[in-house]
Amino acid sequence: MGVREIRTVPDPVLREPTKKVPLIDTKVLDLVDDMIDTMRARGGVGLAAPQVGVSLRVVVIELPDEEEVITLINPEIIKTKGERVLDEGCLSVPGYQGEVTRAVTVKVKARNIDGKEIRVSATDDLLAQALQHEIDHLEGRLYIDLIDSPEKLWRVEPGTEE
Q: What domains are defined for the chain?
């Protein structure tokens, strides 16, 4: 296991739609372990496989004060509801934050590391935001793509991005 390099803009892997994971094997499980180590080392809440240079549909999310890491393989957003405006940052866009519009409620289906289908729902919290942010990465979208005007993106001290 280990900490991998975080890919940052303009790395092309961040703009490519990812491929579905056909089989959850040791290679995928090692990737998940490395992603968790990398997310923790960089102080992130979530991480998508393209952020470590792997074009697969894999996401890990660890919320503050939660003991369990949420691992999503082949996640899909199946339902959203409402809109809210949030400040967002990203390990792949260091030194910046921006104001984006996200859904209030999000429902996702995916597989866990055992291959079992799971559903995750979240409303008006950090998990709802993280699910949308990380699944956007799997589609080749970054939060900066959601910013509708230049004044809604600003510089922050490195290491303070969300």
A: 12-155 (3.90.45.10)
